[in-house]
Amino acid sequence: MNTAADFAGISRQIREILGLESEPVAIYLIAPKAVPDHPAASFDRAPGHRYCQLLMRARRNERVRLTERDLACPAAAAAFGWKQLPASLASGAGLVGFGIVAEAETGHTMFADMPRLPYGAISEIAACPLALAPALPDVIVVEGRPEQLMWLLLADLNVSGGRRRRADTAVLQATCVDATIIPHLEGRMNFTLGCYGCREATDLGPEETVIGFPGQHLEALGRALGSLNAKAISRSRSRSALKTLTKDVLP
User: Which of 47, 62, 128, 132 has the least C-beta neighbours within 10 A?
Assistant: First the structure.
């Protein structure tokens, strides 16, 4: 799977099966040496944006990218290996100030345990709708309602042979760390309920959350979703068991 038609077709399949209202987002983590020839290096720059805001624009059909100078979130800059975490955040005091934690030590531990890319590993981050992907993405991020993303997770369970899936989150940096860096570093799907930052800075709805997976899993997940759609999804959404209970038992 490496043509524009491939990505447009599987994006349409995912959206139609899950009922997504916006596009799955293709993410490219571009190494310094790859920038000149990378097909996403021509995307529009987005100065003054947070990473979660880059995703927001991409799922609304824009092709955008961030450099170190553009990224407005210091926590994400540290996670992507661009800058050191500011002392106020590293100590946890900053999270106390935001009202996110009650004790600075709690915030310190949250950042100390944060998965991150090696310093200087990438120099740009690009994002676009999966339907417009110019090459296989490094990571794909999907935002939607929990019921919709549940089927994507079940597809991943099918691909993995039934091994239980686990979420890794600090309810902090949900899009940059949870949905992007962890899938990239660990080669697996990760899911989260969101975080203070992405809910404060983007249009992610209170009824929505986010999931991310490596781009190399896209084709297998698409096949598994198609199989689920043949029976399980429509049957679950029909709520036939509830209707029977309502008819026969409930007043």
Answer: 47
Number of domains in the chain: 1
- List, for residues 176-187, the tens digit of each pLDDT value: 999 999 999 999
- CB contact at 8 A, 27 and 141: yes
In a domain, 87, yes or no: no
Q: Cα dihedral sign for 184, 185, 187, 190?
A: negative
In a domain, 106, yes or no: no
Are 225 and 151 contacting, i.e. CB atoms less than 8 angstroms apart?
yes
Distance CA 124, CA 48 (A): 14
Is 98 within the bounds of a domain?
no
Residue type, 206: P
Q: What backbone torsions phi and psi does residue 54 show, to the nearest 5 degrees?
A: -60, -45
Domain membership flag for residue 165:
yes
Bridge pairing between strands 139-144 and 190-192: unpaired
pLDDT tens-digit readout, 19-69: 999 999 999 999 999 998 999 999 999 999 999 999 999 999 999 999 999
> Contact, 175 vs 210, CB < 8 A?
yes
- Nearest partner of 121 among 173, 52, 185, judged by Cα: 185
- Domain limits for position 209: 4-81+116-248
d(CA 79, CA 95): 16
Q: Which two tokens stand for residue 221?
A: 């997940």
Question: Is the Cα dihedral 196, 201, 207, 211 positive or negative?
Answer: negative
Query: Parallel, antiparallel, or unpaired for β 44-45 and 64-67?
Result: parallel
